[in-house]
Structure formats: structure tokens, C-alpha cells
Amino acid sequence: MSMTAPERSREVAAVRSCRSRSICRRPRQRCWRPLISATPLATILSGRRISLSGPGSTQSLQPTVALREEARAAAETALTLQPNLGEAVFAKSFYHYACLKDYDTAVNYLEQAYRLLPNNSRIPQALAYVERRRGQWDKSEAYFNEAEKLDPRNVNLLSQHARSYICLRRFPEALRKLEQILNITPDDIDTLVLKARIAQAEGDLPRASALLAPLRLGADYANALETQVYQAILESRPGPIISRLKEILATPDQALGYYNGELRFWLGWAQEVAGDHAGARESWSQARSELEPFLKEQPENFNPMGDLALINMSLGDNAAALTLAERAIAVNPIEKDALTGPRPLDVLARVAAGTGEHDRSIAALQKLLSIPYEAPLAANPPLTPALLRLDPMFDPLRNDPRFQKLVASPLPK
Length: 413
Fold this sequence. Notes:
The chain is mainly α. The chain is 62% helix and 1% strand. It has a domain at 328-413. The chain has helices at residues 5-17, 65-81, 86-98, 103-116, 122-133, 137-150, 155-167, 171-184, 189-201, 205-212, 222-235, 239-250, 259-273, 277-297, 302-314, 318-331, 342-354, 358-368, 385-390, 401-408, and strands at residues 32-34, 49-51.
């Protein structure tokens, strides 16, 4: 498993390029799990971590080039010293998964690690993550089931399995998994928010409101907070959440990175729904000025790219909005990543609807409704007919018979 000089050079370059993929959507959550404990590799990998949780299971090493390179070098050293050490092989697999996005190679390492560590639940869990990225949803579910047999009370594992069901629009099964979590950790905020997102996707806004209204969330729960904003927008009652967002953004936490700009986009959308068009433009303009430096620094990060596409559409800069949406699709195509690859297409559907390119929007929506994926806005469930009916971003399509047909269609089986 030693590397040639060209291979080493390619991996170092890939480490640098993957910095843009590592922003955590809950920046203060304890999402780093010890990779190694009580093994000879501990002395080599001391202090190194791999993320085994986080939204969409976007596993990544800590967001610095130096630490990623150290982790890669540590795994290489361990493999050289003990080529049959399962933890070292496992570490190498996550490097290929998280930084290189080389899922085929990651699977090869994980399968080898699984033979060496057949009772380690993290390995089938990781295989479940990789297989859904590869679009192998049945294989992914089988690995989730294997992992749960080994570690049936692992809340992160159960949550990620539920998220897979949500991506597949298998909402009853997702809810059963979420209830398992609540039996272990009652009142868990992330789990309650996931239940609310399912209610939104099913068009049951009263049920979603009952779950979300009691939660007093700060910016450290960025995704959950965005779900509350989305609920207010879907209900056309954005007043209270506008006040809450203004309060949070009055003293933004710089540790949130680009999520301050993203929250400001949501503020602008809520203000627009409330009829405060001038306030919305001011919020969107500030969001754009905050997000553009992040995209310049992280040119392959399709998350702020999508935010900026929606912001530019909202500000009437249609050409820039479409360019950014198309660029995001090129950076993260569906063929490369079945889980998050459709996110930019979701953004394009919205941008095309808002810029008058209705044929293009309808075509994108037809595709999106036929596939599983993790949606871009607040890491919500994928689009459903109910969300198309409720989401005001699709108002320009309301009178199109093709859109009306999509709204009336049943959930894909």
C-alpha cells in the first residue's frame, strides 16, 4: 500500500482542494469522534479525528490542510508499520472518502478493514455512507442494518439511517427510526427537527409547527433554525422569526463561517414573504457581500455557491444566478455523488422558476421528484408534491399545467 511520488503529489493536491467540503452545519456540535483508541496506531494518530456524524454524513477530517495531511501521513505510516492493522486501513478509507471523494477506493479499504475488524460497527456504518453516495441505496441500507446489529443504541447511526429513509421519501420508516432515538435520548433537538421536516414534506404544517414552536434555537443549531424559518415561510407567518433572526445576526458568531451569510439569505426570504421588500433587498445584499469571499476562498464549495445563486436571483441578477447554479452542478454532479449531487439541480429548479426559464425548471423538478437525495435548503427532505404546493419560491409556476401535474402526483415508490 505504499505510494509512488506522483500518487503522493495527487493526494496532497486533493487535500488542499477538499478544504471547501468541511464546514459543519452545526458548528458547535461534538461531531469529531476518536478514530483510534487502545491500539498501536494511537501513538501515531494521537489527536487526529474523523467525523462520523454531521449533516448528511459529510464525513471529513478537520478543516485545515495541515491536519488532513498529518492524518493521511499518519495512516500511511501505520500501514507501513502494520499493514494488517484494521484501524489504519479504516483511517485510510475515510481519507479517500472525505477528502478525495474517491468512493470506489474507499469501499476497497473499508471491505479490507471489515475483514480485519468484523465486530466494529463503524465499518458497516461507513460502508452505508459510501454506498449511498454511489447511489447504491439497497446496499447502503443493508450495511446500516449490519451496523445496528452490532451497535443498536448508537444514536448517530440511527439518525443517519433515518436520514437515508428521508432521502428516499420513505417517511414512515424514517419516523420509526426517529422514535427509536427518542426512546434513547428523549427530547433530542435534532431528532425533533427531523420529524418536523418530514411533516413539512408531507404537507402537515400543523404537526411540524407543534414540533418546532417549543424550540428556542440559536445560530449554533443553524440547520434547525433554518427549518423554523422555512416553517414560517410555508405558513406565510414570518413575523416572529424575522425578529429572532435579526437578534441573532445583530452579533454574528464569526465561528459560523459562511452560515451567517446563509442565515441572512433566510432573513431576506422571510422579509420578502412579509412584504418588506426593501428590508429583503438589504438583507440579500449583505448576505451576498458576506458569502462571496467564502466562495472565492473555497471555489469548489457548492453550498455557498447555491446560496449565492438564490440570492442573485432574489436581487434580480438573473445571469449571475444561473451561472452560479450551473457551476454548482458542474462541481458536484449527480453522477459523482447520488446523495448531495442533486442539491445544485434543486437550486437550479428554483433559480429557473424565478428567472422565467419555466421549461428548464419543470424539467429539473421532474428529475428531482424521481430520485432520492438530500435537499439544499436547511438539509430538508427532497422535494415532494406537498412542498411544491407550499413553497412560495415556485409561485411563478403555479399556472403551468405541467407544474400542476407534479403537485398532484403521488410520492414516488
